[in-house]
Specification:
The chain is an alpha/beta fold. It contains 21 helices and ten strands. Among the domains are: about 160 residues, no CATH class; about 260 residues, Rossmann fold. The protein has an eight-stranded mixed beta sheet with strand order 1-4-6-5-7-8-9-10, sandwiched between helices. Strands 2-3 form a two-stranded antiparallel ribbon. The longest helix is centred in the last third of the chain and has 32 residues.
């Protein structure tokens, strides 16, 4: 599924159509108009002129980008990098503007034409176009300052610092209001709206003294206003994503761990006969050396920060296999009520040991979630691959910064190799798989295995991995300005937490924040149900049905600033303007009234090769098993995958990169939402299958040669 970028001719047609559409609407509204409110008419005229101005400036820039962006691809068969993505996002914005503009031109004389609503829609996309224009100027600066073919400027710390400062002041709310998710697959947009509204409602009640049910009721009452007032939603989401602390993000993301939500997930996913949580005590392990099995190496238990401690894991198996019902394995069980073993089901016939073993490290920015929130696709993998899956619940930051998680994952990997017979496998072929932070851990665990001289896994499937844990500038990192799932402020908090920056300052939750699990579950569930019910009801309403802010002049300024305000904001001199990057004369992007405080990732730990494998010397990467990277084109971490794949390829290491379209970071956890995420998850599954079957093919070839 390669990412497609429109050709020069396609864009010439698009910009020509944009110019013609604006002229048509300007002519319609500058002449005699049947619209009662001349103020709104003037807003539309000013908006169309602004769009014309942006379009005329953007066309030569797009032509320049499309002529060179192929130089930044992994290879000719895999078109995908941050420059291509920025152009594709711009294309999506222009198509939305064209669609809305043609609708206005064709229907503005209709009795049922909602003038305020359509003016606000067009103004929102005009603002988005303005900010995307700023991103393209920033991307052009990256092309000029970076080495040819390089997506990151790894040595230019000044450029990255200026990029963070620019991000901190740019207006972002427009991308979370009416324009929310315009760049993603249409089937994902209702889900993104639900997530954003739930997050804002949760943020409003965060830290308040309320009982569980009281907080749920408050969240239920407040969530409705964000459905009917998109601009309020955008401004509140911008405030939350830029300024709330790490504990808020940990608590919000961990809602996915609640009994209600995981219960729904289990109902919707494949049933498994074994779902067992394990606690492995911290005892030294001895494993044979890969170079000489007659010799062995000692692997110490995790020690960083607080000394030896147990490692937690979850074993999932679609079928009960030999060893999985043994007393030895069950002695490690934490007594999870969801676990089922053959001793509980005497009629279940045990299957023989599988030759394959899949070891999984979950995502969550190193700060949140466990194997429980990733069970949905792990159950699917266990069934479709017919393989036991061991998912590691490593300790989370900021309470457990680097290298604790790496030590625990490496220890779990070694324990699994030594005790594979208990897990239902002979471990003839072992694959590591992980997403985001888990993808990083797959790579660094393999690096650690090489440095210790023990067996490396037979392959790695890393979905949208973080391979450079810095705030260095790249074209795909510019997407953090518009991404509702991975804003730069949140990304920087996660990276600094993993590096241990200010980890001692983390405070425990107090007051109303100390909710019971049921209270948090009810809050999230009721908020989601509110938004879902509202969207369902609105789908039955006629097009002329009024919405908040669309039927009264008094609400217009709250719902959407006038284009005069837009013009004043975009040309005003913002605070600390000397820190901003230079833009062409006559253009200045909108600035936020709510400045983000983004702490750059300046800790030396961030550049440790076991934290940022993209920075690892060749000696630490040579000998890695085949690495299969799967990255969404609309992911802020896309360039991490492209550059890491290039680095491995240039070393002669086996590597593949697949870029999937129209999807955000974290698509594996969304695999049941739509066809696009389902297809992308299937690609990940096929890459794991390829790792396992490569061994079978090799064995057959060896046997044929012997015969």
């Amino acid at each position: 599924m390669p990412v497609a970028v429109a050709s020069d001719m396609d864009f010439k047609v698009a910009f020509s159509a944009l110019e013609a559409m604006c002229e048509e609407n300007i002519s319609a509204f500058c002449g005699p108009s049947d619209l009662a409110d001349g103020t709104v008419t003037q807003r539309l005229v000013v908006c169309m002129k602004q769009i014309q101005e942006h379009g005329r400036a953007l066309e030569p820039m797009v032509t320049s980008f499309t002529s060179i962006c192929h130089h930044y691809d992994f290879d000719a068969q895999t078109p995908g990098n941050g420059y291509r993505t920025l152009i594709k996002v711009l294309q999506s914005c222009i198509l939305h503007i064209l669609h809305k503009g043609h609708y206005i031109a064709s229907n503005h004389k209709s009795t049922f034409f909602r003038v305020y609503h359509n003016a606000s829609e067009m103004e929102a996309y005009c603002t988005a176009l303005c900010q995307l224009r700023a991103l393209l100027y920033l991307a052009k600066r990256l092309i000029n300052d970076n080495d040819f073919g390089q997506l990151y400027s790894l040595q230019d710390l000044d450029l990255s610092h200026r990029y963070v400062q620019e991000y901190s002041s740019l207006h972002k709310a427009c991308f979370y209001g009416r324009c929310l998710g315009f760049q993603f697959s249409p089937s994902l947009r209702p889900f993104l709206q639900t997530i954003v509204i739930s997050m804002i409602s949760y943020g409003e009640t965060y830290g308040k003294q309320q009982s569980g049910l009281g907080l749920a009721a408050l969240s239920l009452l407040t969530s409705g206003k964000y459905v009917i007032d998109p601009e309020l939603r955008g401004s509140e989401f911008e405030r939350i994503t830029q300024n709330l602390d790490m504990q808020f993000w940990k608590s919000f993301w961990n809602i996915t761990e609640s009994e209600i939500l995981t219960g729904f997930s289990r109902i919707a996913s494949y049933p498994v006969q074994l779902n067992l949580t394990l606690t492995i005590p911290p005892v030294p392990l001895r494993l044979p050396l890969a170079s000489d099995p007659n010799l062995s190496a000692t692997v110490s238990p995790p020690l960083a920060h607080w000394g030896p401690g147990p490692v937690h894991m979850r074993l999932i198996s679609h079928e009960i296999r030999e060893g999985q019902d043994s007393e030895e394995l069950l002695a490690f069980s934490r007594g999870d009520p969801s676990s089922v073993s053959a001793s509980n089901l005497p009629w279940v016939q045990k299957q023989p040991l599988s030759p394959w073993l899949l070891i999984h490290f979950h995502g969550g920015g190193f700060v949140a979630q466990t194997s429980r929130s990733h069970e949905n696709y792990l159950r699917s993998w266990s069934k479709q691959l017919n393989v036991p899956v061991l998912s590691v619940d490593y300790s989370l930051s900021p309470e457990a910064p680097f290298p604790r998680a790496l030590e625990e994952c490496f220890y779990a990997y070694c324990w699994a190799l030594k005790n594979c017979h208990l897990l239902g496998s002979t471990a003839d072929r072992v694959s590591l798989a992980g997403d985001s932070a888990g993808g990083n851990l797959c790579i660094t665990v393999s690096m650690k295995a090489m440095t210790c001289g023990i067996r490396v896994p037979d392959g790695i499937m890393a979905a949208y991995p973080a391979t450079l844990l810095t705030t260095d500038a790249s074209p795909s990192r510019l997407l953090t300005l518009i991404d509702p799932l991975l804003p730069l402020g949140v990304l920087a908090k996660c990276l600094n937490a993993y590096a241990g920056v200010d980890s001692q300052t983390v405070q425990p939750a107090v007051g109303g924040n100390s909710l019971t699990a049921l209270g948090r579950e009810t809050t999230a569930l009721l908020s989601d149900l509110t938004q879902g019910a509202t969207s369902w009801i609105q789908s039955f309403l006629p097009p002329m049905w009024p919405t908040s802010g669309a039927g009264s002049r008094t609400s217009r300024h709250k719902e959407s600033p006038s284009m005069d305000t837009h013009r004043n904001l975009s040309h005003s001199s913002p605070p600390n303007s000397q820190c901003h990057l230079d833009y062409p004369v006559g253009f200045e992007p909108l600035r936020s009234e709510c400045l983000a405080v983004v702490q750059p990732t300046s800790s030396p730990i961030i550049r440790n090769p076991f934290v940022s494998p993209l920075l690892a010397p060749d000696s630490l990467l040579r000998g890695l098993p085949p690495v299969h990277l799967v990255a969404p084109a609309l992911d802020a971490l896309l360039d991490d995958s492209v550059m890491f794949a290039k680095k491995l390829r240039d070393m002669g290491q086996p590597v593949s990169l697949t870029v999937v379209e129209d999807l955000p970071h974290g698509f594996l956890s969304l695999s049941q939402l739509c066809k696009e995420t389902e297809v992308a998850a299937e690609i990940c599954l096929e890459k794991i299958r390829e790792i396992f079957q490569e061994g079978s093919t090799k064995n057959c070839s060896d046997k044929a040669r012997r015969d």
